[in-house]
């Protein structure tokens, strides 16, 4: 008879810790985005951004052939790749009866893409003039970084939360970081664009998780009634 109360206490503690972690992640990411925005548009990040470009230039000079690999990696943060994944992965998850994961993933990709475009047009920062490849559009925040981390971060969350695969979750997050770094390497984004994209992605993923969780709770209450 004592097992049920102990189980409920343990479950409540886990849920509270999870919600607290989500809250901290959202607030931290939101404040980081605000700080980067202030740095870019009020204080001037020229020295920081140039230092990041210089570091990538030294890396390119010391590792011949790295640019070809950077171009391959950066594709996995492109709009074409997001369209492919957005149209294929959520229906597949739905068909596999993973409906919550399907909704979360689609919301992560579609919402982050839309939000990124809104932010770009709101801030209106132009791209670096030293880009190694042609890239249309505005610069802040980086779409590859923002939508990429939203996609891979959501998959990482699902692998950790539902599948208990922490190693794969960590690798996905690291992959998203590598994709973002290729944008600095190719000079198509400033380092502050990439960092802002990462911060916005974390905040968006937490919001999606919270919204889906809230929706499921409300549906459970309706069913009980």
Provide a descriptive summary of the structure in words.
- This protein is mainly alpha-helical.
- The protein has one domain (3-224).
- 81% of the residues lie in helices and 0% in strands.
- The chain is built from eight helices and no strands.
- The chain has helices spanning 3-43, 46-62, 66-75, 79-95, 99-123, 143-161, 166-185, 191-224.
- Helix 5 (99-123) packs across helix 8 (191-224).
- The chain starts with a helix and ends with a helix.
- The relative contact order is 0.15.
- Residues 221-225 have low confidence and may be disordered.
Brief sketch in words of this structure:
This protein has 225 residues and is mainly alpha-helical. The chain is built from eight helices and no strands.
Q: Tell me the radius of gyration.
A: 20 Å
Helix/strand class: mainly alpha
Q: Indicate how many domains the architecture comprises.
A: 1
Q: How many individual helices? A: 8
- Largest beta-sheet characterization: none
Q: What portion of the residues fall into strands of 2 or more residues? A: under 5%
Shape: globular
Mean pLDDT: 86
Helix and strand string, N-terminal first? HHHHHHHH
Helix fraction by DSSP (H/I, runs of at least 4):
over 70%
């Amino acid at each position: 008879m004592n097992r049920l109360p102990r189980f409920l206490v343990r479950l409540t503690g886990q849920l509270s810790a999870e919600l607290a972690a989500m809250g901290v992640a959202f607030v931290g990411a939101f404040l980081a985005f605000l700080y980067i925005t202030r740095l870019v548009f009020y204080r001037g990040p020229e020295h920081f951004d140039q230092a990041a470009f210089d570091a990538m230039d030294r890396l390119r000079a010391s590792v011949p052939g790295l640019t070809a690999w950077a171009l391959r990696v950066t594709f996995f943060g492109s709009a074409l790749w997001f369209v492919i994944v957005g149209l294929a992965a959520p229906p597949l998850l739905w068909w596999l009866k993973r409906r919550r994961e399907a909704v979360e993933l689609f919301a992560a990709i579609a919402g982050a893409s839309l939000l990124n475009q809104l932010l770009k047009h709101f801030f209106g920062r132009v791209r670096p003039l030293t880009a190694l490849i042609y890239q249309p559009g505005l610069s802040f925040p980086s779409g590859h970084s923002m939508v990429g981390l939203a996609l891979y971060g959501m998959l990482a969350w699902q692998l950790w939360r539902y599948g208990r695969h922490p190693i794969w979750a960590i690798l996905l997050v690291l992959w998203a970081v590598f994709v973002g770094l290729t944008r600095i390497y190719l000079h198509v984004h400033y380092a502050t664009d990439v960092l802002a994209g990462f911060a916005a992605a974390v905040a968006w993923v937490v919001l999606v998780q919270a919204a889906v969780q809230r929706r499921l709770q409300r549906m459970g209450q309706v069913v009980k009634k």
